[in-house]
Write a structure and sequence with these properties.
Layout: E1 3-7, H1 11-22, E2 26-31, H2 34-38, E3 45-48, H3 53-59, E4 65-68, H4 75-88, E5 91-94, E6 106-108, H5 111-118, E7 125-128, H6 143-146, E8 147-152, H7 155-163, E9 168-172, H8 178-185, E10 190-194, H9 202-211, E11 215-219, H10 229-240, H11 244-258, H12 266-279, H13 284-287, E12 288-290, H14 294-303, E13 307-310, H15 313-318, H16 321-326, E14 330-333, H17 338-347, H18 351-359, E15 366-370, H19 374-385, E16 393-396, H20 404-412, E17 418-421, H21 428-443
Helix pairs in contact: 1-10, 3-4, 8-9, 11-12, 12-21, 14-21, 17-18, 18-19, 19-20
């Protein structure tokens, strides 16, 4: 199953984690602070603490995908995540926050540039760029009186601003409403803010500042490539269903939906679903027929170390031999044996018929998985009637048009437990799917 590491601490990080939880995808979130962890869904697995590149390398070990949902201005963190993923070969998905462009503002490339712009101006300055950048504003002349700074309501940024000598400090947890911004901005002539997008309450800040006739400086975002939240969700969906186990899980969910309203004996349903999964053909929901108690009898035989004999090497290759052998069983096919071909030619019969005669010599604990040759079923019926063969189960699913239906009817009307696909449909893959479905029932 896919595992994701999410570097969060933002609204987008929370939304990604909520989506992963909704999809039942195993994930762990990484946040720099306890405050960031509080944003995450309840019961999410969270690691709190600042990490450098080496720390991130260790943190993402064992994950299939790394999602960087950190703040758009947390450039150093993003670079560390990039470097760690590059060095470890992890797939990195960068989530970009939506950005809102606005008229009537001054754009600055950085906070340093904004401070240069503001130095020789008059009026009180409202700073909404966070506590990390507080030291930069000490370059503003008379900053203790001129700068009102708003930071998160946690000890670290508050203590930092006090130590730097700021007297006018507001704290809280955004995004802030339009009304809150009006109250906080009162008496200020300038606003310096980041382009924090909808999640950061950007428009509410701009609208409040304009209502107060403030001049506005917006710090441009660092240029970077990435994906929107909706695009990241699609990447998660695609990745989750391209892993083999995830593909199978989703396939069986689709099959279950396709069988909604249908009722099958519980012991047969897993086998029917496995065959539909193998063939993508819902007709097998009607075509597969089981003799009374066939599944329970087959499971008993397999648990006793059965020999599974197929009529093609294709069917033989598809059987889960690891499980079969763990039960003391084995699988074999005689069709490619030179001695079988020689005997068939000398006697003027098919190799399939000779192969079944060889199978009859293997003992009593035999399961036959026939997916190709109707002549195999005809030979099996003859050997049973002659008292020369007593297989414990016949899987009769040959495919074709000549003698196929007739050979299957011989098995259905016989005395040996069977699983048969009525009509002309079947094949080696169907025979293998039935054998494996039985084995999976034992090892589930």
């Amino acid at each position: 199953m896919m595992r994701a590491a999410v570097f969060a601490g933002t609204t987008e990080g929370r939304l990604v984690c909520e989506y992963l939880a909704l999809k039942n995808i195993d994930f762990t979130a990484f946040t720099a602070t306890e405050l960031g962890a509080e944003l995450l869904p309840e019961n999410a697995k969270v690691n709190v603490g600042r990490l450098d590149t080496d720390g991130i390398k260790n943190a993402v070990e064992g994950f299939d995908m790394v999602i960087d949902a950190t703040h758009p201005y947390a450039e150093e963190v993003t670079e560390n995540i990039k470097a760690a993923c590059h060095d470890t070969g992890k797939r990195l998905v960068r989530l970009l926050r939506d950005e809102e462009k606005t008229d009537g503002v001054i754009y600055a490339n950085s906070i340093d540039d904004a401070v240069k712009m503001i130095k020789n101006t008059d009026g009180k300055i409202f700073v909404s760029t966070g506590g990390n950048s507080a030291e930069t504003y000490t370059a503003v002349p008379n900053y203790r009186d001129r700068v009102r700074i708003r930071v998160l309501d946690s000890n670290e940024p508050l203590e930092k601003c006090r130590n730097l000598g700021f007297d006018d400090i507001l704290s809280g947890r955004g995004p802030f409403s339009y009304q809150e911004n009006l109250e906080h901005f009162a008496g200020c002539g300038w606003l310096i803010t980041k382009s924090s997008g909808k999640a950061g309450g950007f428009q509410e800040k701009i609208d409040a500042a304009k209502a107060l006739d403030m001049k506005i400086i917006v710090i441009k975002r660092p240029a970077e490539e990435g994906y929107t939240l909706e695009e990241v969700k699609k990447i998660i969906d695609f990745t989750a269903v391209t892993e083999p186990m995830a593909i199978e899980k989703r396939s069986f969910e689709i099959i279950e939906e396709g069988l909604k309203g249908r009722t099958f004996p519980p012991e047969q349903k897993d086998i029917i679903k496995r065959v539909i999964h193998t063939t993508a053909d819902f007709d097998f929901a009607d075509n597969l027929v089981f003799s009374e108690g066939a599944v329970d009898k087959a499971l008993e035989v397999l648990k006793g170390g059965a020999v599974v004999v197929t009529d093609t090497n294709m069917a033989l290759s598809g059987i889960n031999k690891k499980i079969l052998e763990s039960l003391g069983g084995r699988a074999c096919c005689f069709m490619a044996d030179e001695s079988v071909a020689k005997e068939a030619k000398e006697r003027g019969i098919t190799r399939a018929a000779v192969s079944m005669e060889r199978a009859a010599m293997l003992g009593d604990n035999i399961i036959l998985a026939i997916g190709n040759a109707p002549t195999s079923l005809i030979a099996i019926d003859r050997l049973i009637r002659e008292g020369k063969f007593t297989p414990r189960l016949i899987i009769g699913v040959p495919v074709g048009f000549v003698n196929v239906v007739e050979s299957k009817n011989l098995i259905i009307n016989g005395s040996v437990p069977y699983i048969v696909a009525k009509g002309s449909k079947g094949g080696s893959t169907v025979a293998t799917a039935i054998v494996n479905a039985l084995l999976y029932k034992i090892k589930r």
